[in-house]
C-alpha cells in the first residue's frame, strides 16, 4: 500500500484490484480459519493472531465476525440469527440486473452492516481489544506514511468484496440455484481459486466438519466421495456472479430460511 501511493490512477487501480483485493480476500479467509480455532491449539491465541491478520485490512472486524460466523454454522438459515441471510429490505429492493450489480459491487458493505441491524452483539473485552489494536496500527501507519496507505486498504476491501473473482464465494456458498439443484442449500467449488482462498470453496465439506483445517478439506473429499460426488457444484465463481446478476430466477430470496429450533 505504501509503494502504490504515488502511482498514476490506472496502474494504482490495477494493482489494487489484481494484488491488493486478492490479498485482502485471502486475509478475510485466514480470519475465517482463525474464527474456527484452526491455526493454534489455544482459542485465545487464535483470537489474538486474528487481530494481527486484521491489521492490513484497516477496519477492526475480526472479533464481531467470529461471533456472527459461528452462529451461522450453528443456526444456518435461522431467521434473525444467521446474519448471512439477506435482509427483507435487500430482498424487496434488489430485483433486477442494475440493482443486483450495485449490490454485487458493494456486497462487502451489506455483510458488514447487515448484522448490526439484525442482531447486534454485546461489546466484550475482546471487541475493545480488537478496536484498540487496530486503531493503534492505523495510527502508526498514518504517522509514518500518511493517509494514502489507509485509503488503499479501504479500497482493497471494497474491491475484494465486489466484482472480484474471489468474491464469488460469498454468493456460491449458500444461494439456492434452481437451474443447478433447487433443493440444495450449500454448494462447493473445486476450482483453482481455492489456492488463493484457503480452500473455502470446499464448503459442503467445511460445514460438515468445521474443525478440519483448510489444508485437509481436499483429503476429506477424496476419502468420502459417496457424500460429495453426487452433489451439484459451483463450476465458476465468476460465472456465479454473472448468474446472480443476469438470471431472473436468482436473487436475495434464493436462500433457505428456517425458524429457530425449539428447545427440548
UniProtKB/TrEMBL annotation:
Residue ranges of domain Fatty acid desaturase in the record: 8-229
Protein name, entry field: Sphingolipid delta(4)-desaturase DES1-like
GO CC, alphabetical: membrane
Example GO BP: ceramide biosynthetic process
Species of origin: Seriola lalandi dorsalis
A Pfam family that the UniProt record links to this protein: FA_desaturase
GO terms for MF: sphingolipid delta-4 desaturase activity
Keywords: Lipid biosynthesis, Lipid metabolism
InterPro entries linked: FA_desaturase_dom (IPR005804)
Amino acid at each position: 500500500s505504501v509503494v502504490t501511493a504515488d502511482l498514476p490512477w490506472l496502474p494504482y487501480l490495477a494493482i489494487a484490484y489484481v494484488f491488493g483485493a486478492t490479498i485482502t480476500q485471502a486475509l478475510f479467509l485466514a480470519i475465517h480459519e482463525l474464527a474456527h480455532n484452526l491455526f493454534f491449539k489455544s482459542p485465545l491465541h487464535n483470537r489474538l493472531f486474528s487481530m494481527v491478520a486484521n491489521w492490513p485490512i484497516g477496519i477492526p472486524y475480526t472479533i464481531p465476525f467470529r461471533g456472527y460466523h459461528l452462529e451461522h454454522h450453528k443456526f444456518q438459515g435461522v431467521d434473525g440469527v444467521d446474519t448471512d441471510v439477506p435482509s427483507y429490505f435487500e430482498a424487496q429492493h434488489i430485483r433486477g440486473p442494475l440493482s443486483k450489480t450495485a449490490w454485487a459491487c458493494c456486497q462487502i458493505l451489506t455483510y458488514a452492516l447487515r448484522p448490526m441491524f439484525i442482531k447486534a452483539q454485546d461489546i466484550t473485552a475482546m471487541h475493545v481489544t480488537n478496536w484498540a489494536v487496530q486503531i493503534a496500527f492505523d495510527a502508526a501507519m498514518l504517522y509514518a506514511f500518511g493517509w494514502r496507505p489507509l485509503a488503499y486498504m479501504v479500497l482493497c476491501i471494497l474491491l475484494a468484496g465486489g466484482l472480484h473473482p474471489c468474491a464469488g464465494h460469498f454468493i456460491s456458498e449458500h444461494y439456492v440455484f434452481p437451474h443447478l439443484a433447487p433443493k440444495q442449500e450449500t454448494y462447493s467449488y473445486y476450482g483453482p481459486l481455492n489456492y488463493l482462498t484457503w480452500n473455502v470453496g470446499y464448503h459442503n465439506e467445511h460445514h460438515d466438519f468445521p474443525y478440519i483445517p483448510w489444508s485437509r478439506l481436499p483429503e476429506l473429499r477424496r476419502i468420502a466421495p459417496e457424500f460429495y460426488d453426487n452433489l451439484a457444484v459451483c463450476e465458476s465463481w465468476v460465472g456465479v456472479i454473472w448468474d446472480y446478476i443476469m438470471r431472473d430466477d436468482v436473487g436475495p430470496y434464493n436462500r433457505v430460511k428456517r425458524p429457530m429450533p425449539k428447545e427440548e
